[in-house]
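tool_log.txt
---
The assistant was asked to compare two proteins side by side. It first ran the structure predictor on the initial sequence, then on the second. Raw inputs and outputs are pasted verbatim so the downstream comparison step can read them without reformatting.
(1)
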Amino acid sequence: MTVLINDTGFLTTDPTRWIDPEARIDLASDTDPARLRCLLIGKELVRVAFPSFSDGRGFTLARLIRQQGYKGWLRAQGHVIADQYAMARRSGFDDVEIDDDLATRQPEGQWLARANWQAHDYQSRLRGIAA
């Protein structure tokens, strides 16, 4: 089983359950960015895999996907830890999907502690932009 997490904590239902399976795609962290535009045509849900919490390529993919104008649902899936939640949201993910074991090790409170991801945005402060 898996657990979905957004700014309100652990979700009891999948907000994307209505999306047709044909309109979904799973991307590996090593997906070639040059292929993104073709891969995303007609897709309403994109899940980007995180094979390890130390593999940050998924954050880069999310940012590139959003920069190309993708407006659909973007989900980080796999080994994302609570400390990375703010980065996931800032890079464009709508939510995070983790397995039950990780959810047990990092309970909802740890994720909620990072749910105010728009606050304390170092890069915006560095550029002089209000967060």
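(2)
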Amino acid sequence: MIVMGIDPGIAICGYGVLYEKDKIQVMDYGVIETRSDLSKPQRLKKVYESYIELIEKYNPDAVAVEELFFNKNAKTAISVGEARGVALLAAALKGVEIYEYTPLQIKQMVVGYGWAKKNQIQEMTRVLLNLKELPRPDDAADALAVALCHLYYKNIEKIYGV
């Protein structure tokens, strides 16, 4: 199974691609960045086209996307929501199954604590994926954590028939 995890954003969007057969392996991870001097539609277009390229390159069986966490800045939340919608659209148009997880679910599955900090997510992602260094930036680590969360949920379903 190949899973692409997405940590949506308008300026920086994290992605992580994991492969699981006998064990979980990292295929790729990184970020999609958009320039602040571009209009929002141009930024969203770049994010969309980048997701399409990644989906075509890795042909994932599933795309796991972090659900929107509403913070105090409504403008930022709206922009992230728009970028999240672009990610969902790209996966849907490519016919890939989409799964959504809250930040609490992701942190609970990967770190074991729903209120974990960014550095804890980076470290546990590094350990669980046997990486030599912390995945950076933290948006990429978050995307890997989303993909890990999905694989863990799928394995629980297999074991317990949930």
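---
observation on (2): The mean pLDDT is 93. The first strand starts at residue 2 and ends at 7.
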